[in-house]
Amino acid sequence: MSITREQAEHVAHLARLTLTPAELDRLGAELSQILEYMGQLAELDVAHLDAPPSATPLDPLDEPPRADASLTAASGALREDTPQPGLSREQALAEAPRAVSGSFAVPRFVEEP
Q1: What percent of the chain has pLDDT over 70?
Q2: What is the pTM of this model?
Q3: Class assignment of domain 5-43?
């Protein structure tokens, strides 16, 4: 699949990038290469392959959780989800660079339409 210049401009706009015409051409070419590679991957027959042993089921109904499961990179298993104590508002705001009226104060970053 080939990316048009207009599509490259749209992607750049979504990413809030200001690109020169040469950079737009390069972006389009690179995105086209990525899509071609993804097309090649999509053509592979993977039906006979097993899921990697570290993969966790996407649907929790597929596999019941084990009582001894813990969240580790080695096992890929999920731990029991139990509530843990959190920080008080004062503790959280104590490390904040700036707080106003009991809340985190952050610079405005969303542009008004």
Answers
A1: 73
A2: 0.46
A3: mainly alpha
